[in-house]
Specification:
single chain; 333 residues; mainly alpha; two-stranded antiparallel ribbon; CECR6; transmembrane; CECR6/TMEM121; transmembrane helix; membrane
Length: 333
């Protein structure tokens, strides 16, 4: 337990350290190349750090409060002779993380990336200090932040179904974030070397920035899993379609255009675009198959087929007495 707590604290501290480090590096680039008009970005970085700390404390407080209530309920179920459910089965800090990520992306990351790559990215050159390479490393902090954020705020057991879902989604999001950083690299080239039309430059920046927002959907999906509910078919399809239409297809098309029209080397991420699109299309197919997650008796939430039994007693209390009796009898049968 102590080891688990220590790793959690270390993960959260690393999140804050990386957040501050990335903000400081990007601020230096902005002030150095965009004059003192960019000093305002320091204030936005401070606001984001405060929001992250606030969300971490709020998530922890809500988690401990919920865990305490669930433990009391578990003890009562044990006393009544009902099956015991692990107290932490559906408690997690993940449901609040989308607030922190949305603030980080909308207040600092996207505005700073847009200014840098629109105004002076092609002027950085190959300098060892404050050149292109340091900027790339700073941007690569973003996928690291996402992984640390998710893994320091959940308590899913190793090899459990929820842990598999967490790992799958977080790994996919990390690759997509790296994909966006990779596509921005073409904007480091000077206009003399590569004369891109303004529309294509804007498209590259726009789709990269849109991809920075999309992990919010992943965090919302993970928060649903943390509550033991299964996503509705519409939510799963929306998630998959978003990553096909806003990430993999546009970035893949841009890479083909750069290859065919501007003789640029093809990035290995074009393979990732094809594979990821196929995987998401298969997920859509799986989501639309006849066998769907069962809806709870109250009709409010959907639960995975293997989880529905654990929620029958909980939902029965919300139904009229006759309906509740019929539901419990049908479950036993």
């Amino acid at each position: 337990m102590a080891c688990s707590i220590n790793l959690e604290v270390i993960g959260k501290l690393l999140c804050l350290i990386l957040l501050v480090l990335q903000g400081a590096i990007l601020d230096i680039y902005l002030i150095e190349h965009h004059d003192y008009k960019s000093l305002g970005f320091i204030a936005t970085d401070i606001v984001v750090v405060v929001i992250w700390i606030s969300v971490m404390f709020m998530a922890k407080r809500k988690f401990l409060s919920k865990l305490k209530r669930m433990r009391r309920k578990t003890e009562k179920e044990k006393t009544d002779g009902r099956p015991k459910r692990p107290a932490s089965d559906y408690a997690d800090e993940i449901p609040y993380l989308f607030i922190a990520w949305l603030a980080y992306v909308s207040i600092t990351l996207v505005p700073e990336v847009a200014v840098i790559f629109k105004r002076f990215a092609d002027e950085l050159g190959d300098a060892k200090v404050w050149g292109q390479n340091i900027l790339k490393i700073a941007l690569c902090i973003t996928p690291m932040l996402f992984l640390l954020m998710v893994n320091s705020h959940h308590d899913a057991r190793p090899n459990s179904e929820r842990r598999v879902c967490l790992d799958k989604i977080s790994a996919g999001v990390t690759l997509d974030l790296l994909d966006s950083i990779d596509i921005l690299e073409v904007l480091f080239l000077d206009d003399v070397e590569l004369s891109l039309p303004v529309s294509l430059e804007n498209a590259i920046i726009a789709f990269a920035c849109i991809n920075f927002f999309l992990p919010t959907l992943a965090l919302l999906q993970l928060s649903t899993i943390a509550k033991g509910q299964a996503n509705s078919t519409k939510a799963k399809v929306l998630y998959s379609v978003s990553y096909i239409c806003l990430v993999n297809v546009p970035l893949g098309v841009i890479r083909v255009l750069l290859w065919v029209n501007y003789s640029q080397d093809v990035s290995v991420f074009i393979g990732k675009n094809l594979i990821a699109s196929a995987i998401y299309m298969f997920d859509i197919y799986e989501s639309c198959r006849p066998q769907q997650p069962e809806q709870g008796p109250t009709g409010e939430n959907h639960f995975a087929l293997e989880k529905i039994d654990g929620h029958q007693t909980q939902c029965a209390s919300a139904l009229p007495e006759n309906n509740a009796s019929e539901m419990l009898v049908s479950t036993v049968a």
